[in-house]
Design brief:
Layout (H helix, E strand, L loop, with lengths): L1 H15 L2 H22 L3 H31 L3 H7 L5 H30 L6 H28 L2 H18 L11 H7 L3 H14 L6 H29 L1
Helix pairs in contact: 1-5, 2-3, 2-5, 3-5, 3-6, 3-7, 3-9, 5-6, 6-9, 6-10, 9-10
């Protein structure tokens, strides 16, 4: 656990020292919500649902841009080269990265919720707020692993466009901007297997006071295993290329 903590502190410190990069990532969801979310939040129920969707959007952006693009750009840095030769497993580094992702996701989601509270009629019982937080941050774990995978498999110059495409595709496809009920049948079927849709189902149920089903949790557990494996393979591949 100490190694996880030390790497967590190092990762968090590095991100804090680049505020121009970090601030943009945590502020963009709130800004987008001002221009898009507020226009469709015409009732309390609608405001709650839109706010929940944008909370997922905020956590997803942290996973893809701060860690996916960030790792890809830093793979040739002296620190990354030094970290590769340390007696530390990929699991330790991934756990530390996920913890750092959660810290920044908390900041991004908190800003988003603050904007929603000020500009819309968002409001629900305390238990619904607690369930929303659980849904968003449990869902952030597999997405952080997906971001790590992007970072280790993408060439540095290609990481940003790849992350942008996946970010928007998963956001739209997962129903964060278009309600699944409004999607064509084929797109809705594809949406039903996306990780963002599974997080959405949990978040929407939370704000509507509906019970959670088991299926989204199973999907997210499966995605965590798959993305973790792909990220570890990318890490080992990068290690083999640089230090063989």
């Amino acid at each position: 656990m100490r190694l996880v903590y030390e790497h967590f502190v190092a990762t968090l410190t590095g991100l804090i020292r680049t505020p121009a990069y970090s601030l943009v990532t945590v502020l963009i969801p709130g800004v987008v919500f001002i221009f898009i979310g507020t226009s469709v939040a015409d009732s309390r129920e609608a405001a709650n649902l839109v706010m929940a969707s944008f909370a997922i959007f905020a956590a997803l952006g942290v996973a893809f841009f701060q860690f996916g693009v960030g790792i890809a750009n830093e793979r040739e840095s002296p620190w990354e080269q030094f970290a590769h030769v340390l007696a530390v497993s990929p699991g330790t580094r991934f756990a530390a990265t996920i913890l750092a992702a959660l810290v920044f996701a908390i900041v991004a989601v908190s800003i988003l919720i603050g904007v929603a509270l000020i500009l819309t009629d968002v409001g629900m019982p305390l238990m619904s707020w607690a369930r929303l937080v659980v849904a968003v941050f449990v869902g952030a774990v597999p997405m952080a692993l997906f971001g790590i995978a992007i970072g280790y498999w993408s060439p540095p110059k290609a990481a940003l466009p790849i992350a942008n495409i996946l970010y928007l595709a998963l956001s739209f496809g997962g129903g964060l901007f278009i309600p699944p009920s409004s999607m064509p049948a084929v797109l809705n079927a594809i949406s039903g297997v996306l990780p963002t849709r599974q997080i959405g189902e949990l978040a929407w149920a939370a704000v509507q006071g509906r019970p959670w089903g088991l299926e989204p949790w199973l999907w997210l557990a499966g995605y965590t295993v798959v993305f973790g494996f792909v990220a570890a393979m990318g890490y080992r591949r990068d290690e083999g290329v640089r230090y063989r």
